[in-house]
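Lecture 7, part B: from sequences to assemblies.

Below are the input chains for today's worked example.
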Amino acid sequence: QKEVEQNSGPLSVPEGAIASLNCTYSDRVSQSFFWYRQYSGKSPELIMSIYSNGDKEDGRFTAQLNKASQYVSLLIRDSQPSDSATYLCAVNPQRSNDYKLSFGAGTTVTVRA
Amino acid sequence: SQTIHQWPATLVQPVGSPLSLECTVEGTSNPNLYWYRQAAGRGLQLLFYSVGIGQISSEVPQNLSASRPQDRQFILSSKKLLLSDSGFYLCAWRTGEYSYNSPLHFGNGTRLTVT
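Predicted structure of the full complex, as structure tokens:
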């Protein structure tokens, strides 16, 4: 089982719709979770961090975390063509001697104008 | 604020030639430093990470090596490049204190093509 798994994608949504991205993780003790956006040919950019169960909103982005279900999601409201990118889910292990962030393979989102 | 510099942005090298990619971080001290590689259309592959000067952990056995000669400098090297070394190389940092709660911050990357 992979440590972090994401929707295989690609995900195509019309402009103005909600894009929903899902991520599950295997390490039950994980405590911090991140979403990155990566445009084609560019480096990943941090867009959301979430540490507690529930929702966290930042502009058009909402991250949702459910530790009991080992599930974290990202919602993009009012999707714009500029949101077309690959979204990476990343999970931090809660172990002081483990310095590696686990990344999912990414979900590619295309927003249709 | 913290910034990360990575260079060069693009590089075309013949098979068998050496490689040196450099990354520096400003505005923080004792960061954790990382080298990733991303093949075309693929996910991120962790190559090396460092939690301090001279401390290098290797994730994948291959013809690459890394060094950290200074606190905020991380270098990726190879003595002889292979075709399979082509890819997008990313340097990243995060705070060394309470690193397990910290996100990674990536440099702009180096696109390496081995011909």
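Note for the exam: The interface with chain B takes residues 31-32, 34, 41-46, 49, 51, 88, 90, 92-96, 98-101, 103-106 of chain A (CB under 8 Å). Keep this in mind when comparing with the next example.
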